[in-house]
Amino acid sequence: MHLGWNALSLFKVSGLTKQISGKTIVNDIHLNINSGECLGILGPNGSGKSTLVGLMSGIIKPTHGTVRFGHLCLQQNRKQFLGRIGRLPQDSNLMNNMTVYDGLINQAGYHGMSRKQARPIIDDYCDQFRLNEWVHVESQYLSGGTKKRVMLARALMHSPDLLFLDEPTSGVDIQSRMMIWDYLSQQVEKGLYIILTSHDFQEVFKLCSTVINLDKGSLRREKQSLADYCQGQTASSPSLERQYLSQMNNEP
Fold first, then answer.
1. Which residues contact 23 (CB under 8 A, 6 or more apart)?
2. CB contact at 8 A, 188 and 26
3. Cβ atoms of 34 and 223 closer than 8 Å
4. What's this model's pTM, rounded to 2 decimal places?
5. How far is Cα of residue 216 from the mean position of the Cα atoms in its chain?
6. pLDDT tens digits for 97-124?
């Protein structure tokens, strides 16, 4: 059950910058995300999307800038901040020799949950994501789609209010993709915040209410509503792809 922090209704990024060996990877990002909003981050490979998500979710330390969720500042209230977010990385971060069940139990323990508290939650997610037949199987033997479903269950174990998704359905089968999309859509309706990176317009259409374009670490356009961005076009429309490419090829 998500808390839906109405009192903490703003996720705010101010001047977020990452430089490595003199090269700017993410450049002075300013961004506000309001209650009930799910943001899609679009951009080509190498645009800085994964780095930006890493900065916003506390995996990567910024060179400059701050990240806040309501009154919690990532830099000043790191433990409390991380306790309210979940992360689904692009690549598997599961331990190969650990079973699905043990991995979920360990994640629950990391967030201060007892085994007694965790078991019914694990049972629910195993039912929801069709993991029951894999629950005692080591991660190294799982398919890519099954790993993604396990990783999503793990990211949600502590009922976060904000979920970071980095290419959540990249490389997964259609069945797993639809399962993930349908579940996340339901949770968005219940108040879960989502920040999503994707190359897939269908994925953005399914989950997001606002979008930004990122290229070479900088915003190409200010945040737009999905309706304004698409201007009545569908996710499969060739003209929408041309519009996206046009924005990428022109300076903001």
1. none
2. no
3. no
4. 0.85
5. 20
6. 999 999 999 999 999 999 999 999 999 9
